[in-house]
Amino acid sequence: MYWRLILLNVLSGFINCSADINREKAERLMAETPLIDGHNDLPWQMRQLFNNELEKMDLNTLEKTHTNIPKIKAGHLSAQFWAAYVPCESQYKDAVRQTVEQIDVVHRLCRLYPDDLIFATSTDDILTAFQQNKTASLIGVEGGHSIDSSLGTLRMFYNLGVRYLTLTHSCNTPWADNWLVDTGKDTAINNGLSDFGKELIKEMNRIGMLIDLAHVSEKVMNLVLDLSNAPVIFSHSSAYEVCNSKRNVPDDVLKRVAQKKGIVMVNFYNDYVTCQKTANLSNVADHFDHIKKVAGHEIIGFGGDYDGVTRVPKGLEDVSKYPDLVAELLRRGWTDIEVKAALGNNLLRVFKEVEKVRDSMSSVKPYEVPIPYADVVNPCRTMYGYPPQDNAGSMVSLGLHLPVLTLLLHGTIVWLF
Questions:
Q1: How confident is the model at residue 2 (pLDDT cuts 50, 70, 90)?
Q2: SS3 helix, strand, coil % of the chain, rounded to 5?
Q3: Which of 128, 180, 282, 388 is in Cβ range 3.0-4.6 Å of 185 for a Cys bridge?
Q4: In angstroms, rounded to a whole number, what is the distance separating the alpha carbons of residues 152 and 169?
């Protein structure tokens, strides 16, 4: 019994020593290579908790969120794509305004905390922030409904610093189908992408906007992989074979992403990690292992989805815990090169290639044809810029038909003269 206790103590010490070594190595690698996370919903928490009145909170002491400045520092979070998200309920209403306000939140956070956050729009900006020991703050718009089917709005978002657009959230747009179509909970209306949706992909290539396929249907994934001249991203999705949620990426698509030299940034939401309400850090590492096995370490990144989900794995409770996940990958035999690729080198490569495609298309003119009015007609949309009559005569004069349509939709029939 005595010798058994000694052996247990020795083994316990060895395990602890090994864990310490992996953690120390994780910290060293993260000091050499920027950790770039693809998706964090802190701006939406600013909306929910403070109605975007940032003076009402202090990001140094805020404890209601997965993310604050001390946690960012502890987690070695070198660059973050902050999500400019607004709910699907805003579609056809005030989605553009709401999204601009969320973009404004990111700009204001950077101005309020200049010692810790720095606004970024390029690969060079990310590397500069890393050298300054600040967190590069980029913007991704989460959901195509935010552009209200307008390429002009897409281009202006880019001018405001947005660097990726998630083509859908959990709702169809008039030009792209969302992931719920694959579950049977929603109906396909675009056969994946409409003709306008295909032109939007080309326009995103032209302006240098990263195409984010998180939240889209599998058909959209494959269509975009066919159409895009630039690599694509999944900003916060995991491996379907590990957790059979349609929000995750199937193996055949993982292989196509590798061929396109894109990236899949692993989501930490329990429901997409284990397809259950509970999960742990090791379960998340299983997704990293699977993607590496199927498609190679060159397509893997981190896409925690912090502050956008209600359940996160044990051991990954907030953004301070990234080093523990890196240590687990090292324990599983990941090499320094593989870890650094997942930390940030993969995303930097993808981003640079998107910038390269943009530069190669500098002589291409903007696509100016608006989406067909019949695809977006609703009581909140005017017809300015469109011919007075639709092809099939479904719309008549500007002065009469739209008010009648509005009244009919509200269950009221009134004669207008």
A1: low
A2: 50, 15, 40
A3: 180
A4: 20
Rounded alpha-carbon distances, angstroms, from residue 402 to 383, 389, 408: 9, 12, 10
Q: Which residues are catalytic?
A: 39, 41, 142, 169, 215, 236, 305
**Backbone angles phi and psi of 51, in degrees to 5:** 50, 35
Give the other-Cβ count within 10 Å of 178's Cβ: 29
Residue type, 194: S
Going by C-alpha positions, the residue among 126, 26, 76 that lies closest to residue 346 is 126
Q: What percent of the chain has pLDDT over 90?
A: 87
Structure tokens at 349: 């490569």
Count of CB atoms within 10 A of residue 38's CB? 30
State whether the Cα torsion 16-20-21-23 is positive or negative.
Answer: positive
Extract the tokens encoding 74.
């502890």
Q: CB under 8 Å to 47, separation ≥6 — which residues? A: 101, 102, 105
Query: Considering all CA atoms of the chain, what is the largest pairwise distance in Å, rounded to the nearest integer?
Result: 100
Q: What is the DSSP string of 235-291?
A: TT--BTTTS--TTSB-HHHHHHHHHTT-EEEE---HHHHTSSS--BHHHHHHHHHHH
d(CA 345, CA 337): 9
Decide: helix, strand or coil at residue 333.
coil
Q: The pTM is what?
A: 0.90
Output the DSSP codes for 164-182: EEES-BSB-BTTB-BGGGG
Distance CA 166, CA 221 (A): 12
pLDDT value for 1: 52
Q: Do you know the residue count of the chain?
A: 417
Q: Could you give the 3-state DSSP secondary structure of residue 35? A: strand
Nearest alpha-carbon partner for 320 in 42, 28, 67? 67
pLDDT score recorded for residue 394: 41
Nearest to 132 by CA among 112, 122, 118, 119: 118
With 50 as the cut, is the pLDDT of residue 384 above it?
yes
The type of residue at 276 is Q
How far, rounded to the nearest angstrom, does the alpha carbon of residue 299 sit from its chain's CA centroid? 15
- Packed helices 251-259 and 218-227: angle between N→C axes, nearest 10 degrees: 20
Contacts (Cβ under 8 Å, ≥6 apart) of 135: 72, 77, 78, 79, 80, 116, 117, 118, 129
User: What would the two tokens of residue 105 be?
Assistant: 């939140």
Do residues 39 and 303 lie in contact, with contact meaning Cβ atoms separated by under 8 Å?
Answer: yes
